[in-house]
Design goal:
The complex is a heterodimer of chains A (282) and B (296). By secondary structure, chain A is mainly α. Chain A folds into two domains: 38 residues; 211 residues, Orthogonal Bundle (MetI-like fold), CATH 1.10.3720. In chain A, 76% of the residues lie in helices and 0% in strands. Chain A contains 14 helices and no strands. In chain A, helix 3 crosses helix 14 and helix 4 packs across helix 11. Chain A is globular and about 75 Å long. Chain B is an all-alpha fold and 296 residues long. Chain B has one domain: Orthogonal Bundle (MetI-like fold), CATH 1.10.3720.10. Chain B has 14 helices and two strands, in the order ααββαααααααααααα. In chain B, strands 1-2 form a two-stranded antiparallel sheet. In chain B, helix 2 packs across helix 14, helix 11 packs antiparallel against helix 14 and helix 13 packs antiparallel against helix 14. Chain B starts with a helix and ends in an 8-residue tail after the last helix. Classes of the chains: A mainly alpha (282), B mainly alpha (296).
Chain lengths: 282, 296
Amino acid sequence: MASYEKNKSKFKVSKLIIYIVLTIFAVIYLYPLIWLIIAAFKTNNEIFLSAFGFPAELQWINFEKAWVAGHIGQYFLNSVIVVGTTLLVSLLVNCMAAYAIARMKWKLSGATMAMFLSGMMVPIHASLIPLFVWFSNLGLIDNYLSLIIPYIVFSFGQSIYIMRGFFGSLPREMEEAAVIDGCSLWGAFWKIIIPISTGGIFTIGLFTFNGTWNELLVAKIFTNSDSVRTLPVGLTTFVGPNMTNYGPMFAAIVIAVIPTIIVYCCLSNKIVGGLTAGAVKG
Amino acid sequence: MERLLRDKKMILLFVGPAVLLFVCIILGPMIYGVALALFQWDGMSDPKFIGFDNFTFMFTQDVTFWVSFKNSIFFVIFSLISQQFLGLLTAIILTNNIKFKNLFKNIYYLPVVLSSAAVGLLWSFIFHPKIGVLNQLLLAIGVEGPKWLSEISGFLPLPLWCIGIVAAWQYMGSTMMLYMAAIQGIPESLYEAAYIDGASRIKCIRYITLPLITPMVKISTVLSCIGSLKFFDLIYTMTNGGPAHATEVLASHLYTRSFTQWEYGYGSALAIILVVLCLLFTFVLNKLVKVENYEM
């Protein structure tokens, strides 16, 4: 829309208003997070004294209390294990399924894609109770697997959809050449297709990481001991407006959001790019 | 090559694991859940077949169901209006020649990637009557602020609005991003032609941008509705459905009934209502938002 800019003087005032509005919005977006980080370094007294003041001394002890006494360290480790395993397995399963749907010739490929997409449209609440009963009978409740298996499945709709679009856009000659040279389809998939699809894999990996790291409902229902609880659940047991040890609570929230903020800051352009790539085709 | 791509065993190898997992974790349990809705079951004793009694109870006697139903619909409508409006507005602004537009975009999208449990807890402290930012601000100008999250008078009590605003704060960015993608897909030449013909900026938005992004409006509104109906994390962390179930939504009511009171049959009946509502909203929005095809 560069052509508008010729009329600069006319739009100066309206531009100024737009910048002011955008900046006010940005403050509304950033201030709560900044407030949280400052509060995490305060003593209880300072928190009660004023919501706006700065801490006289940085209370690193808050983080130590949250990490050890509040079990946030344990929850963090659990989250890393659950999310890591989910990522590894789901990337593998999603890529294979997306390849079969995008490239292979079979009657039900359209219907299968529709089935995976329907999983995104229907709330998971509908399968939670039977799943809970089933997992209880299998003795899986309060086990990492009771989270990892559902999380893998929750990633299907979006990931397979994005990867199908990605594989569909690759030139067919690539596998053909490999197959003619005596490679099996399985071999061509791993040696040719996967290495050139790292961009797409990266995108679905980010989405899966984000969704899994933040998931609360399933984690809340399927775990009940500190040794398995993930961060979002652990956070809700440790933090609440009715508890009184504020400093460590704020520190715990900071610890929970820091990994996603770091990932986002490093990769925000890729996240946004991947999102738009998926969205345009959507 | 053709032969290889039709190889049944190979196809099964590639797609089999995903289909198997999906059927075991989503589809199978869902069908089982529909059957379960016709039973009374606490998970311990034998399930008792009671036909449609769960639904009769829900519609005629369960007061909390109607409260949560009302609240869920409130969140659907509130999110639709606030997020679509703000998301579209920011998307239109940020697709213009604006300085720092990437910075603004990244800031607005940031809350989307945060854990909604953490966001809910953070905001429950901002709304805190004593140590919260809001009431201390109000105090500074001499007003005593309300108890934001525990005032339950009225048909739509104050906490609902607070939670709705937090939801808008958190998810507006994702709506904005969808619209930005749609707007960036519109060819520049259309705007140039309109500009040469003397169209104003507002007219360009009205007659070029808006008509051409209707497919995205459809996707975005459906996603927003389903997201609002699934709404659980913010409610759970900010008010836990209270005080006195006044802020309960369908998902939290389902959670309480199924997993703290162990009424599996009744919980399944609630889940069916939730699914039906999702399908209904998807259907209605698909009918409501007309997508016209333009040659570009």
